[in-house]
Design goal:
The structure is a single chain. The chain is an alpha+beta fold. The protein has two domains: 98 residues, 2-Layer Sandwich (Zincin-like), CATH 3.30.2010.10; 36 residues. The chain is built from four helices and six strands; from the N terminus they run H-E-E-E-H-H-H-E-E-E. The chain binds zinc ion (2 copies). One zinc ion (ZN) binds next to loops. One zinc ion binds next to helix 3. This is SprT-like protein. It comes from Desmospora profundinema.
Length: 165
């Protein structure tokens, strides 16, 4: 990717264009890169409606992936502004995401130290996380620390479950 494209105003225009083209609605708030994001591809903030994008996905995965992340965040954005179901688990969110072909999960970044880790087995009792490269059946294993039941989680675009939107 051309590093010259790594400017917030470039991203801002890109988000505005995708919003008009794929959603038929304007994006009237701020979009910016946040270099402090780690594995998260993007974030939407309920407080001020801004969208943040991980610049490493832009540099390392390319524009097509970032466009998919932008569409994901715009699903949160438009549904939230329209007071519809904007959360990951909401039917309206899932339908809109599928309709605009947004990414459900951001690709794992090369060299992020979690190179091929795409899945987390999470203990439902003590919360311990076991990163795994391959999808596994959580019912077949128990937590090594407390013997609790495990739940499988894919590493996601937004860490909405643990932080702000
Ligand atoms: Zn445990
Ligand atoms: Zn999301």
């Amino acid at each position: 990717m051309n590093p010259k494209l790594l400017f917030d105003d470039e991203l801002q225009r890109r988000v505005e264009t995708i919003s008009r083209r794929d959603f038929g609605k304007p994006f009237r708030h701020r979009a910016c890169f946040n270099p402090r994001l780690r594995t998260t591809g993007g974030r939407y903030f309920l407080s001020d409606h801004r969208i943040e994008i991980n610049p490493r996905h832009w540099l390392e995965c390319g524009a097509e992936v970032v466009d998919g992340i932008i569409r994901h965040e715009l699903c949160h954005y438009h549904l939230h502004l329209e007071k519809r179901g904007y959360r990951h688990g909401d039917r309206e969110f899932k339908e809109l995401l599928a309709h605009v072909k947004g990414l459900r999960h951001a690709p794992v970044l090369p060299g992020s130290g979690k190179r091929s880790v795409r899945w987390l087995l999470v203990c439902q009792h003590c919360g311990h996380e076991y990163p795994r490269r391959k999808r596994m059946d959580p019912a077949r294993y128990r937590c090594g620390k407390c013997r609790g039941r495990l739940r499988l989680r894919e590493i996601a675009v937004c860490d909405h479950d643990d932080g702000p939107f």
